[in-house]
Hints:
Layout: E1 3-9, H1 19-27, E2 38-44, E3 51-57, H2 66-70, E4 76-78, E5 85-87, H3 97-101, E6 108-109, E7 115-116, H4 133-137, E8 143-149, H5 150-164
Antiparallel strand pairs: 1-8, 2-3, 4-5, 6-7
Amino acid sequence: MSTQYGFYFIKEKCIQCFGCEVACKSWREAELGVRWRRVHNIWYGRFPNVKTASASISCMHCVDPVCVKVCPVGAIKKRAEDGIVVVDRSKCTGCKTCLKECPFSAPQFGEDGRMQKCDMCMNEVDLSNEFPPCIETCPTKALQFTKMDTKEKITIEQEIQKLIAL
């Protein structure tokens, strides 16, 4: 069974400190309005049984990424060696087809109109023995990072989709 890097989120541990979002934005010096990682507060239920949950969401580097399939210019690729989904911004035309199809709304578009997104800080840290800043910053370890098998990765993607659909 193949393995790839992936994020794992434990909603019960999240305290909505936004540390992961701030770490990502400041570490990568993302421009105003661009959020590669986002913390969502999700309310669900009916009064008086209203509940809340959190979700820390970025590109999930999906097992079968729809963004790769729909990009009309082939600007998005999934790396076979580690499963990281990368974008060649020089090829991107800014059509936003990837954003329309992504179940996690991961693609972001800055001032230049070209797609950008989480790349797991692959060129910033040694993923074989370090964690991306969003992981390092989480005080409760609600956000985790590991290599996982394909079946586990698909399950995690489905869990996040269910959470954000509440």
